[in-house]
Every structure is written in structure tokens, then in C-alpha cells.
Amino acid sequence: MAQSIYVASVEGHTAKSVVALGVLEALKLRHKKIGVFRAVVPIRETRDRVLELLLANLPNKLAYESAIGVGYQELHDSQDKALETISKRY
User: Fold this and answer.
1) Number of folded domains that form the chain
2) pLDDT tens digit string along 19-47?
3) Residue 25 is assigned to a structural domain of this protein
């Protein structure tokens, strides 16, 4: 049985957030503990609205900082370092 579900798209503005929220709601019917991780957020220093929405709908508590990888600027500065950071935080 799958332990992870990933919602991804090669393009922006494709309603991934809506899909993620729907998947989260469906998972809540069967599971008491669910994790959310957003590998890349627009700006690490500014709270991401989509991630906050997902975290607010979890059946369990998860700290915001533990649910993010890197910001767009970090990814732009060094893809290798960003991927390493994302892997460590995930």
C-alpha cells in the first residue's frame, strides 16, 4: 500500500492546491495522522497561504517550518544545494 502521495505539475496555475486539499480531506476519513510537505515555496521568510490552508486542515498538528523545503530564490541560487536541503527536510 502506498505510503506517500505527491501532487505535482510541470506548469503553474493548474489547481494543484485544490487537488491537494481534496486528497487531504479524503485521507482524513481513513487516517488520524497525515503529513504535508511543500518542497518549494515562493519565499521562505513569508508564510505560504496554500501550505497554511493544508496545515489548518490536518487532523494532527504539524509545525509550519517542518513542512517546507526551500524558497524559489534558494532554488535559483543553487539547484544542487536546494535539492540537498529539500531531501534533508523531507
Assistant:
1) 1
2) 999 999 999 999 999 999 999 999 988 99
3) no
Instruction: Indicate the length of the chain as a whole number.
Output: 90
Torsion region of 3: left, alpha or beta (phi above 0 gives left; psi -120 to 50 gives alpha): alpha
- Greatest pairwise CA separation for the chain in angstroms: 41
Q: Which residues pair with 38 in a beta bridge?
A: 68
Phi, psi of 34 (to 5 degrees): -135, 140
Reference 74, options 85, 82, 63; nearest CA is: 82
Q: Is residue 70 part of a domain?
A: yes
More confident residue, 44 or 53: 53
Residue with cell 518542497: 39
